[in-house]
Amino acid sequence: MALTDFSIDRALADLDSASAAQIRQALAAPGFSGQITDCGPTAAQLLPLAACFSVHPISGFAVGAVAVGASGHLYLGANLEFQGMPLHATLHAEQSAVLNAWMHNEHELKALYVSETPCGHCRQFLRELSNLDTLRIHVGPQIHTLQSLLPHAFGEPRSKGHGLLDSPSIPLEAVKPQPNTSQQRAINAAQRSYAAYSRSPEGFVLECLDGQFFSGRAAESAAFNPSVPSVLVALNQRNLSNSRKVAIATATEAKLATAINNPLPFASTLISSISKAEIKVVQMDAR
Question: Which domains does the chain have, with CATH numbers?
Answer without folding.
Answer: 5-149 (3.40.140.10), 172-286 (3.40.140.10)
